[in-house]
Amino acid sequence: MQLTINNKVFTDNSNEANENSAFVVSSQNERFRQSAIDNGCKEIIESKDLKNYLDMSAIKIIGITGTNGKTTTAAAIYSILLDLGYKVALQGTRGFYINDERIEEYSLTTPIQLGNFAHIQKAMNSECDFFVMEVSSHAIQQNRIEGLNFELKIHTNITRDHLDYHKTIEEYINIKNSFFTDETKKLINKDDKIVKYNPKNGFAYSLDEPSTYKVGAYSFKNGMHVMFSHFDQMHSFSSSMMGIFNVYNLMAALSAVHIVTSKPLDEICEAVENFAGVSGRMEIISSEPLVIVDFAHTPDGMKEVLQSFAHKDIICVFGAGGDRDQDKRPLMGQVAANYAKHIIVTSDNPRFEDPDLIIEDILKGIKNHQSVQVDINRKEAIRKAIEMANEDSVVLVLGKGDEEAQIIYDKKIPFSDKEEILKYIK
């Protein structure tokens, strides 16, 4: 892509490089250095030096990483800061936003380096005080966040994911933890036993372990109600959102805003109550019957959602993505078997894999369960689940969240869990 800073053109694509542009070389495109020179490019800039061309001192960058919760936590921080009167940009899985306006549609969780710089430049042109961004493990390993000085780094949790890319859980954990080795201010989920970090400039939030922002009590009745302490001072907030994992997400968000703004916590808690959540994340599509869509696509993500409805008869509809970590599939099946009264295993985004074989992998983890159905047709699976529902049940449709397509081979076929649910409800 191309980026213009003070009338100077930068590109990381050797085909775009010429005598009028500078080629930004990184570990990802090093092999195309000579190609850029052959195209007439006379200036080669190392990716680590790109920061010298864009003064980002006027904006505070907040980065969130973790297996689950990045999108909700980032969106909550963005919402709270806007409510407190700040100008804010948000970059992540759901797109790029500036001051409540969507500038770009869905994208990579974290763009390439030039993409980050381009978005930050747009945010500064809009006089934003803060730039809130999701940081993926891919972005950390590929150094896409090189050159960014974070005001605050936030950790949500580390569980199994992306092992199709990182190969081992140890490698994945180490990459996530590497984000927290410097002396930047950092906010850590103290209840996560896996996280390792440099304690200098460290803050923490938790439900169980002692921390800077410690939840003392919470309840779920018509949403959530949370009490927490900060240096022996008690504070509380309510939210329409549900799930223990959302207690963590909202605690991370309000703690982060407190750290970067020093606004009174009670004022921040009031702003939390205006945040209704993120589309496709624990989203209630119907109340009668109760039908909820969530993006959970890992064993831990599913467990967090299912545990939140232990008081209900759970009807769980889910599958697993193709061309991704195969070992997690039986683990997902096992989680469903542990918590759900009825299970319907279906297709997710099979990509180039045979969906029947993906389902077979999931079923290996479901042992001696009294109510398991298989329907490869996701529309039919959703319909069956809704027909099964009654006033004591909750239908959880998991895996795709607010995605608007199903990926079969390399084609994106229009498909929305939410739309299918609404069709059957009507």
From TrEMBL:
- Give all residue intervals belonging to the Mur ligase C-terminal domain: 280-401
Write down a Pfam family by its short name: Mur_ligase_M
Q: Catalyzes what?
A: UDP-N-acetyl-alpha-D-muramoyl-L-alanyl-D-glutamate + meso-2,6-diaminopimelate + ATP = UDP-N-acetyl-alpha-D-muramoyl-L-alanyl-gamma-D-glutamyl-meso-2,6-diaminopimelate + ADP + phosphate + H(+)
Q: Where is this motif: Meso-diaminopimelate recognition motif?
A: 348-351
Entry PTM: Carboxylation is probably crucial for Mg(2+) binding and, consequently, for the gamma-phosphate positioning of ATP.
Its EC number(s):
6.3.2.13
**Source species, domain of life:** Bacteria
Provide the residue positions that the database annotates as binding meso-2,6-diaminopimelate.
324, 348-351, 399, 403
User: Its family?
Assistant: Belongs to the MurCDEF family. MurE subfamily.
HAMAP family given for it? Answer: MurE
Its job = Catalyzes the addition of meso-diaminopimelic acid to the nucleotide precursor UDP-N-acetylmuramoyl-L-alanyl-D-glutamate (UMAG) in the biosynthesis of bacterial cell-wall peptidoglycan.
Name under which the protein is recorded: UDP-N-acetylmuramoyl-L-alanyl-D-glutamate--2,6-diaminopimelate ligase
UniProt gene name: murE
